[in-house]
Write a structure and sequence with these properties.
The protein is mainly β and 319 residues long. It contains 5 helices and 25 strands.
Length: 319
Protein backbone atom coordinates (compact mmCIF):
# COMPACT_ATOMS: atom_id res chain seq x y z
CA UNK A 1 0.00 0.00 0.00
CA UNK A 2 1.06 3.58 -0.69
CA UNK A 3 0.29 6.27 1.88
CA UNK A 4 -0.04 9.99 1.18
CA UNK A 5 -0.20 13.00 3.47
CA UNK A 6 1.27 14.11 6.75
CA UNK A 7 -2.07 14.70 8.45
CA UNK A 8 -4.23 11.66 7.69
CA UNK A 9 -1.75 9.21 6.12
CA UNK A 10 -4.32 7.81 3.72
CA UNK A 11 -3.52 4.44 2.14
CA UNK A 12 -4.14 3.36 -1.46
CA UNK A 13 -3.45 0.35 -3.60
CA UNK A 14 -1.28 1.73 -6.40
CA UNK A 15 0.15 0.81 -9.78
CA UNK A 16 3.89 1.57 -10.04
CA UNK A 17 4.19 2.60 -13.67
CA UNK A 18 7.55 2.91 -15.45
CA UNK A 19 5.68 4.35 -18.45
CA UNK A 20 4.90 7.65 -16.67
CA UNK A 21 6.37 9.95 -14.02
CA UNK A 22 3.33 11.65 -12.47
CA UNK A 23 1.71 10.60 -9.19
CA UNK A 24 -2.03 10.73 -8.63
CA UNK A 25 -4.63 9.53 -6.16
CA UNK A 26 -8.35 9.16 -6.64
CA UNK A 27 -10.64 11.60 -4.88
CA UNK A 28 -13.63 9.36 -5.62
CA UNK A 29 -15.62 7.98 -2.69
CA UNK A 30 -15.37 8.36 1.05
CA UNK A 31 -11.83 6.91 1.08
CA UNK A 32 -10.57 9.21 -1.66
CA UNK A 33 -7.57 11.50 -1.32
CA UNK A 34 -8.51 14.30 1.08
CA UNK A 35 -6.31 16.77 -0.84
CA UNK A 36 -4.55 17.89 2.32
CA UNK A 37 -1.26 18.70 0.59
CA UNK A 38 -0.05 22.18 -0.30
CA UNK A 39 -2.05 23.36 -3.35
CA UNK A 40 -0.10 24.67 -6.33
CA UNK A 41 -3.24 26.31 -7.79
CA UNK A 42 -3.27 24.70 -11.22
CA UNK A 43 -4.59 21.56 -12.83
CA UNK A 44 -2.84 18.91 -14.93
CA UNK A 45 -4.14 16.17 -17.21
CA UNK A 46 -2.53 12.84 -18.08
CA UNK A 47 -3.40 10.43 -20.91
CA UNK A 48 -2.28 6.81 -20.95
CA UNK A 49 -2.22 4.24 -23.73
CA UNK A 50 -5.74 2.96 -24.18
CA UNK A 51 -8.73 4.88 -22.90
CA UNK A 52 -7.50 6.12 -19.52
CA UNK A 53 -7.07 9.83 -18.97
CA UNK A 54 -7.25 11.79 -15.71
CA UNK A 55 -7.26 15.44 -14.71
CA UNK A 56 -7.16 17.28 -11.42
CA UNK A 57 -5.52 19.86 -9.15
CA UNK A 58 -1.85 19.57 -8.25
CA UNK A 59 -0.40 19.56 -4.73
CA UNK A 60 2.87 18.83 -2.99
CA UNK A 61 2.61 16.11 -0.38
CA UNK A 62 4.53 13.27 1.24
CA UNK A 63 4.25 9.83 -0.39
CA UNK A 64 5.39 6.66 1.42
CA UNK A 65 5.88 3.07 0.29
CA UNK A 66 7.56 0.22 2.18
CA UNK A 67 9.00 2.60 4.76
CA UNK A 68 10.47 5.04 2.22
CA UNK A 69 8.99 8.55 2.22
CA UNK A 70 9.43 11.00 -0.64
CA UNK A 71 8.79 14.40 0.89
CA UNK A 72 7.00 17.25 -0.86
CA UNK A 73 6.56 15.50 -4.19
CA UNK A 74 4.05 16.71 -6.73
CA UNK A 75 0.77 14.75 -6.68
CA UNK A 76 -2.64 15.11 -8.29
CA UNK A 77 -6.11 14.51 -6.89
CA UNK A 78 -8.29 13.10 -9.68
CA UNK A 79 -11.73 11.64 -10.24
CA UNK A 80 -10.66 8.25 -11.59
CA UNK A 81 -12.27 5.00 -12.73
CA UNK A 82 -13.26 2.69 -9.87
CA UNK A 83 -10.69 0.06 -10.80
CA UNK A 84 -7.64 2.30 -10.18
CA UNK A 85 -7.02 4.09 -6.88
CA UNK A 86 -3.57 5.51 -7.58
CA UNK A 87 -0.64 5.51 -10.00
CA UNK A 88 2.93 6.23 -8.93
CA UNK A 89 5.06 7.10 -11.96
CA UNK A 90 8.51 5.48 -11.98
CA UNK A 91 9.56 6.43 -15.51
CA UNK A 92 12.98 7.82 -16.32
CA UNK A 93 12.07 11.48 -16.54
CA UNK A 94 14.53 13.48 -14.46
CA UNK A 95 14.08 16.80 -12.68
CA UNK A 96 16.31 18.38 -15.34
CA UNK A 97 13.48 17.75 -17.84
CA UNK A 98 10.30 18.05 -15.79
CA UNK A 99 11.36 20.78 -13.31
CA UNK A 100 10.28 18.51 -10.46
CA UNK A 101 11.64 15.24 -9.14
CA UNK A 102 9.37 12.21 -9.17
CA UNK A 103 8.93 9.63 -6.43
CA UNK A 104 12.12 7.59 -6.87
CA UNK A 105 14.38 10.48 -7.90
CA UNK A 106 13.23 12.29 -4.76
CA UNK A 107 14.27 9.30 -2.64
CA UNK A 108 17.70 9.42 -4.32
CA UNK A 109 18.08 13.17 -3.75
CA UNK A 110 17.06 12.78 -0.09
CA UNK A 111 19.63 9.95 0.27
CA UNK A 112 16.81 7.74 1.52
CA UNK A 113 18.00 4.80 -0.60
CA UNK A 114 21.45 3.25 -0.57
CA UNK A 115 21.61 2.59 -4.33
CA UNK A 116 20.05 4.21 -7.38
CA UNK A 117 18.15 1.08 -8.44
CA UNK A 118 14.78 -0.53 -7.83
CA UNK A 119 13.83 -4.13 -8.55
CA UNK A 120 10.49 -5.25 -9.99
CA UNK A 121 9.02 -8.75 -9.69
CA UNK A 122 5.71 -9.62 -11.30
CA UNK A 123 3.91 -12.71 -10.01
CA UNK A 124 2.13 -15.00 -12.42
CA UNK A 125 -1.59 -15.63 -12.53
CA UNK A 126 -2.84 -19.05 -11.37
CA UNK A 127 -0.22 -19.06 -8.60
CA UNK A 128 -0.07 -17.69 -5.08
CA UNK A 129 2.84 -15.42 -6.04
CA UNK A 130 2.76 -11.79 -4.99
CA UNK A 131 4.36 -9.06 -7.05
CA UNK A 132 6.98 -6.98 -5.29
CA UNK A 133 8.93 -3.75 -5.65
CA UNK A 134 12.31 -3.33 -3.95
CA UNK A 135 13.46 0.28 -3.54
CA UNK A 136 17.16 1.06 -3.29
CA UNK A 137 18.32 -2.36 -4.45
CA UNK A 138 16.98 -5.67 -5.77
CA UNK A 139 15.84 -9.01 -4.36
CA UNK A 140 18.25 -11.76 -5.40
CA UNK A 141 15.78 -14.44 -4.24
CA UNK A 142 13.44 -13.46 -7.08
CA UNK A 143 15.79 -14.34 -9.93
CA UNK A 144 18.32 -16.90 -11.01
CA UNK A 145 21.51 -16.39 -13.00
CA UNK A 146 23.31 -13.13 -13.68
CA UNK A 147 21.68 -9.83 -14.53
CA UNK A 148 22.00 -8.76 -18.17
CA UNK A 149 22.59 -5.00 -18.21
CA UNK A 150 21.13 -2.95 -21.09
CA UNK A 151 21.99 0.77 -21.27
CA UNK A 152 19.16 3.31 -21.31
CA UNK A 153 19.45 5.42 -24.46
CA UNK A 154 16.97 8.23 -23.90
CA UNK A 155 15.13 10.13 -21.18
CA UNK A 156 11.43 9.42 -20.97
CA UNK A 157 10.17 5.93 -20.15
CA UNK A 158 13.02 3.41 -19.83
CA UNK A 159 14.22 3.29 -23.43
CA UNK A 160 16.70 0.65 -24.61
CA UNK A 161 18.02 -0.90 -27.82
CA UNK A 162 16.92 -4.36 -28.95
CA UNK A 163 19.70 -6.00 -30.97
CA UNK A 164 17.38 -8.45 -32.70
CA UNK A 165 14.75 -11.14 -32.31
CA UNK A 166 14.43 -14.76 -33.34
CA UNK A 167 12.19 -17.84 -33.31
CA UNK A 168 13.60 -21.39 -33.15
CA UNK A 169 17.13 -20.02 -33.55
CA UNK A 170 16.36 -18.16 -36.77
CA UNK A 171 17.10 -14.45 -36.73
CA UNK A 172 14.12 -12.60 -38.17
CA UNK A 173 15.28 -9.00 -38.26
CA UNK A 174 17.82 -9.36 -41.05
CA UNK A 175 15.02 -8.20 -43.36
CA UNK A 176 12.64 -6.75 -40.75
CA UNK A 177 13.81 -3.66 -38.83
CA UNK A 178 14.05 -4.05 -35.07
CA UNK A 179 12.13 -0.81 -34.71
CA UNK A 180 10.52 0.76 -37.75
CA UNK A 181 9.17 3.77 -35.82
CA UNK A 182 11.03 6.72 -34.24
CA UNK A 183 10.00 5.45 -30.79
CA UNK A 184 12.71 3.29 -29.19
CA UNK A 185 11.82 0.11 -27.28
CA UNK A 186 10.59 0.77 -23.74
CA UNK A 187 10.02 -1.22 -20.55
CA UNK A 188 6.53 -0.47 -19.25
CA UNK A 189 5.25 -2.02 -16.02
CA UNK A 190 1.83 -0.52 -16.68
CA UNK A 191 1.24 -2.35 -19.97
CA UNK A 192 -0.49 -5.78 -20.03
CA UNK A 193 1.03 -6.90 -23.37
CA UNK A 194 4.21 -6.97 -25.42
CA UNK A 195 3.81 -4.65 -28.38
CA UNK A 196 6.02 -4.91 -31.46
CA UNK A 197 6.19 -2.98 -34.73
CA UNK A 198 3.75 -4.58 -37.15
CA UNK A 199 6.40 -6.09 -39.46
CA UNK A 200 8.17 -7.64 -36.49
CA UNK A 201 4.95 -9.12 -35.07
CA UNK A 202 4.09 -10.62 -38.47
CA UNK A 203 7.58 -12.12 -38.85
CA UNK A 204 7.49 -13.65 -35.35
CA UNK A 205 4.08 -15.27 -35.71
CA UNK A 206 4.81 -16.46 -39.24
CA UNK A 207 7.69 -18.48 -37.76
CA UNK A 208 5.48 -20.21 -35.15
CA UNK A 209 3.71 -23.30 -36.58
CA UNK A 210 -0.06 -22.88 -36.56
CA UNK A 211 -0.08 -19.23 -35.49
CA UNK A 212 -2.83 -17.18 -37.18
CA UNK A 213 -4.56 -13.84 -36.73
CA UNK A 214 -7.11 -13.91 -33.90
CA UNK A 215 -9.35 -11.03 -35.00
CA UNK A 216 -10.04 -8.58 -37.81
CA UNK A 217 -7.74 -5.85 -36.49
CA UNK A 218 -4.64 -7.56 -37.83
CA UNK A 219 -2.90 -6.87 -34.52
CA UNK A 220 -3.73 -9.93 -32.39
CA UNK A 221 -2.54 -13.53 -32.96
CA UNK A 222 -3.33 -16.96 -31.59
CA UNK A 223 -1.24 -20.13 -31.70
CA UNK A 224 -1.59 -23.79 -30.63
CA UNK A 225 -1.41 -24.01 -26.83
CA UNK A 226 0.82 -27.11 -27.10
CA UNK A 227 3.47 -25.29 -29.15
CA UNK A 228 6.95 -26.46 -28.21
CA UNK A 229 9.12 -24.22 -26.08
CA UNK A 230 11.65 -24.06 -28.92
CA UNK A 231 9.27 -21.78 -30.82
CA UNK A 232 9.00 -19.15 -28.10
CA UNK A 233 10.12 -15.73 -29.38
CA UNK A 234 13.56 -14.59 -28.24
CA UNK A 235 14.87 -11.04 -27.91
CA UNK A 236 18.58 -10.28 -28.12
CA UNK A 237 19.59 -7.64 -25.56
CA UNK A 238 23.21 -6.56 -25.08
CA UNK A 239 24.24 -9.60 -27.12
CA UNK A 240 22.33 -12.05 -24.88
CA UNK A 241 19.41 -14.17 -26.10
CA UNK A 242 16.42 -13.91 -23.75
CA UNK A 243 13.42 -16.08 -24.68
CA UNK A 244 9.89 -15.43 -23.43
CA UNK A 245 8.71 -18.24 -21.15
CA UNK A 246 5.84 -20.34 -22.61
CA UNK A 247 3.74 -19.62 -19.51
CA UNK A 248 4.00 -15.89 -20.24
CA UNK A 249 3.66 -16.06 -24.03
CA UNK A 250 0.23 -17.66 -23.56
CA UNK A 251 -2.34 -15.00 -22.68
CA UNK A 252 -5.10 -17.55 -22.12
CA UNK A 253 -7.32 -19.78 -24.21
CA UNK A 254 -9.39 -18.55 -27.16
CA UNK A 255 -12.82 -19.71 -28.34
CA UNK A 256 -10.98 -22.11 -30.65
CA UNK A 257 -10.22 -25.15 -28.52
CA UNK A 258 -6.52 -25.81 -28.23
CA UNK A 259 -5.54 -22.28 -29.28
CA UNK A 260 -4.00 -19.62 -27.00
CA UNK A 261 -3.79 -15.88 -27.44
CA UNK A 262 -0.29 -14.55 -28.07
CA UNK A 263 1.27 -12.06 -25.65
CA UNK A 264 2.80 -10.19 -28.60
CA UNK A 265 0.58 -7.71 -30.41
CA UNK A 266 1.38 -5.28 -33.17
CA UNK A 267 0.81 -1.57 -33.04
CA UNK A 268 0.69 0.92 -35.92
CA UNK A 269 1.87 3.73 -33.63
CA UNK A 270 4.11 2.15 -30.96
CA UNK A 271 7.50 0.53 -31.29
CA UNK A 272 8.52 -2.29 -28.97
CA UNK A 273 6.85 -2.12 -25.54
CA UNK A 274 7.91 -4.81 -23.10
CA UNK A 275 5.00 -5.08 -20.68
CA UNK A 276 3.68 -7.61 -18.18
CA UNK A 277 4.39 -10.88 -20.08
CA UNK A 278 8.06 -9.93 -20.41
CA UNK A 279 8.25 -8.77 -16.79
CA UNK A 280 6.83 -12.08 -15.60
CA UNK A 281 9.57 -13.92 -17.49
CA UNK A 282 12.37 -11.67 -16.27
CA UNK A 283 13.07 -10.05 -12.93
CA UNK A 284 13.87 -6.45 -13.86
CA UNK A 285 16.16 -3.95 -12.16
CA UNK A 286 15.91 -0.28 -13.12
CA UNK A 287 19.07 1.70 -12.35
CA UNK A 288 18.64 5.49 -12.29
CA UNK A 289 22.37 6.07 -12.60
CA UNK A 290 24.16 9.37 -11.97
CA UNK A 291 22.55 12.83 -12.00
CA UNK A 292 22.28 14.32 -15.47
CA UNK A 293 21.54 17.44 -17.46
CA UNK A 294 18.41 18.08 -19.51
CA UNK A 295 17.73 15.47 -22.22
CA UNK A 296 20.86 13.52 -21.29
CA UNK A 297 21.10 10.02 -19.84
CA UNK A 298 23.07 9.63 -16.62
CA UNK A 299 26.19 7.51 -16.38
CA UNK A 300 25.25 3.97 -15.42
CA UNK A 301 21.55 4.38 -16.22
CA UNK A 302 20.37 0.94 -17.33
CA UNK A 303 17.77 -1.79 -17.15
CA UNK A 304 18.90 -5.24 -16.06
CA UNK A 305 17.18 -8.58 -16.63
CA UNK A 306 17.52 -12.02 -15.06
CA UNK A 307 15.31 -15.10 -15.29
CA UNK A 308 12.53 -14.76 -12.72
CA UNK A 309 11.90 -17.48 -10.15
CA UNK A 310 8.30 -18.74 -10.20
CA UNK A 311 6.12 -21.40 -8.66
CA UNK A 312 4.57 -24.10 -10.88
CA UNK A 313 1.34 -22.87 -12.45
CA UNK A 314 -1.95 -24.64 -11.99
CA UNK A 315 -2.85 -26.34 -15.27
CA UNK A 316 -5.81 -25.33 -17.41
CA UNK A 317 -7.90 -27.45 -19.71
CA UNK A 318 -6.28 -26.30 -22.96
CA UNK A 319 -2.62 -26.30 -21.85
Amino acid sequence: MVTVGTKYNQSFGAIFDTGSYQIWFTTTGIAGYAETGTPLHYNESISYAGDLSVEGPVYTDDVTFDGFTAKDVRVMGVHSPNYIDAIVGMGYWTESNTATAGFFETLIKQKSVSTTEFGYYLGRKNTSEESSLTLGGHDSTKHTGHLVSVPVIKQGFWSINIDGYSVHGKMLNSTTPVDSTPIPPIIDTGNPFIFAPHNAAVAIHSAIPGAVLADDTGNVWKFPCNTSEIYMPTLILSGTSLPIAPEDFKMGSTLDKGMCESAIRSSPTLGWVLGSPWLMSYYTVFDWGAPTKKNEVGKGTSVKFALAVHQPMRSTADD
